[in-house]
């Protein structure tokens, strides 16, 4: 019989794989399911990017193995975007790693930096893929609670001393999935001081960096003085350009960490298809109008959903960024039982907060990933359950 390696024992079923399976099973019964569960953008990639891929697919150069670590033009394009958007200088040759989606780097960084027995500080609630890398490295997690009263920012003073002594890596993610909070420059300045003092590497997950509402411009961790000395930022085209299926991501910043990620990637992949790299470079260096339009779409959806929910008695502060809504569950339910109720009684898929960690309990996450009329329809179905009067 097949005996898996011990390290596999720490890997649970991928949270979103399970959620998607549930939603699909429900839809397969013929029900009109509104899926706000997975963070999968529903809008298409802008057509100029798709056209570039079609054209580039004809280039025989790209039919061979791509160069290890990718084409320089893509690294240059992301470095230029960071300069333009955040005023951050990055050396494309040494401070940029191309990843197969941000997700691969977020898992691999733990394997690059953590030994068994080391501690990784993870936000709770937080994106579950951080845990997978820590489990595969045989390391241990120390949860940093993200509480509403602290603006969903971690309190570094509250980290248990024995965990801090062994901590080597910390994940941060703003605009935040799932709470939708946005970080301040002051928080990041504190973070650099904390990282320097305690010898902790910062992995800033900036997947939702482009999405800030009401005129907010989310700050990049790399804008903080000293940030490059202590960490890297993970950046992805998935959400900014509706390119989740293309699997293009980057690690940016600290040279040593970029080199480690490049090295581990050399063994797993040589790089992305060249045509994808060329189209990705165009996404970053071409017209950015589609990004601003996308943020307006999410902002209008947010307003439509929150106004409709409020009219049914479900009140919550509106998200500042990301495309997620983090809503408290009504009395008498926990996050899983409420998510189940919404699925069974209203054909709405949401992500239960407990899936993001113990401090996610008491909340559900709804994605702004359907047109406004569908979001209003969802709010109407929730209203008819009569739970919020
Ligand atoms: N980080 C966060 C917080 C996410 O929500 C996601 C995707 O949902 C990712 C990273 C993964 O991004 P990518 O598509 O680049 O792998």
UniProtKB/TrEMBL annotation:
<dbReference type="InterPro" id="IPR050881">
    <property type="entry name" value="LL-DAP_aminotransferase"/>
</dbReference>
<dbReference type="InterPro" id="IPR015422">
    <property type="entry name" value="PyrdxlP-dep_Trfase_small"/>
</dbReference>
<keyword id="KW-0808">Transferase</keyword>
<protein>
    <submittedName>
        <fullName>Pyridoxal phosphate-dependent aminotransferase</fullName>
    </submittedName>
</protein>
<dbReference type="GO" id="GO:0030170">
    <property type="term" value="F:pyridoxal phosphate binding"/>
</dbReference>
<feature type="domain" description="Aminotransferase class I/classII large">
    <location>
        <begin position="32"/>
        <end position="382"/>
    </location>
</feature>
<dbReference type="GO" id="GO:0008483">
    <property type="term" value="F:transaminase activity"/>
</dbReference>
<dbReference type="InterPro" id="IPR015424">
    <property type="entry name" value="PyrdxlP-dep_Trfase"/>
</dbReference>
<dbReference type="InterPro" id="IPR015421">
    <property type="entry name" value="PyrdxlP-dep_Trfase_major"/>
</dbReference>
<dbReference type="InterPro" id="IPR004839">
    <property type="entry name" value="Aminotransferase_I/II_large"/>
</dbReference>
<dbReference type="Pfam" id="PF00155">
    <property type="entry name" value="Aminotran_1_2"/>
</dbReference>
<keyword id="KW-0032">Aminotransferase</keyword>
